[in-house]
Amino acid sequence: MESDQYKRAAYETWETMASGWDKWRDAIEATSVPMREWMLRELAPSPGDTVLELASGFGDTSHAAAQLVGGAGRIITTDFSPTMVEAARRRGQELGLQNIEYRVMDAENIDLEDDSVDGVLCRCGYMLMPDPARALAETKRVLKPGGRLALAVWREAERNPWISIVGRMLLERGHVPPPEPGAPGMFTMAREERVHELLEGAGFTVTHIEEIPVLFAYASLDEYIERAKDTGGIFARVWREVPDDEREALESGFAGEFAPYERDGRYEFPGVALGVGAS
After folding, report:
1. Domain segments of the chain: what residues?
2. What is d(CA 209, CA 240) in angstroms, rounded to the nearest whole number?
């Protein structure tokens, strides 16, 4: 798929899914806390700093960072989905935060001056961009000399069964095509070698790299499916298009594959992200 075509499809997907992410915000935030806390420790913004977040979603990382930079500081919260940006804005207003600017922005074409921010945050964003090398070069351009980047991406599929089990089943049953080589995706930056290649190619020095364990918890199989329908574009499309008997077959398959992760009627899936600090 060409870059522009991918961007249009991704835009439509995220615009459609934004309300679902807002609906399940508390559950998503609960899972993402370890990544958010790691990134903020790594970036260590100071009072008065200007910090940019790319692919911010509903902005929980930005909202936490806003308290660290204080009233004299500034957070620029960005996403290429206007609906996501509005969800972040609403949450920031609920929290009474005054030092945040919310902007619709493409990370591959950052609409900021050179050397204009002290730090950049990006959680699970670069891996989904059609040209992460360009996005990282843009990130480097807007950072002041000595500025820092803190990002998180997912480790390999087999270490993230919360998503890989379902992805494998949809592939095996012919509902999704095999991933195209080099196409954006959840696990395209899973290897440290790839992370170093991309960041160093953009002029960064990787200063810290560390695994971050996370936990995905679901009250039931039904909740897993509902959350996946609301927050996962590919899953939502498949679930909408397949006939009832195939949905039943998929549910039965999920129940069998999920059994090792059942805890007293709930499901708890481990996950592993990779935290990266660079300057």
Report:
1. 3-155+184-216+270-278
2. 39
* Fold classified for 3-155+184-216+270-278: Rossmann fold (3.40.50)
pLDDT digits (tens, 9 = 90+) for 32-84: 999 999 999 999 999 999 999 999 999 999 999 999 999 999 999 999 999 99
pLDDT above 70 as % of the chain = 99
* Separation between Cα atoms, residue 126 and residue 130, nearest integer Å: 9
131 phi and psi angles, rounded to 5 deg: -135, 75
Give the amino acid at 148: R
Which pLDDT band holds residue 163 (cuts at 50, 70, 90)?
A: very high
Cα gap 54→19, rounded to integer Å:
19
Print the SS3 string covering 89-156.
HHHHHHCCCCCEEEEECECCECCCCCCCEEEEEEECCHHHCCCHHHHHHHHHHHEEEEEEEEEEEECC
CA atoms within 13 A on the CB side of 47: 3
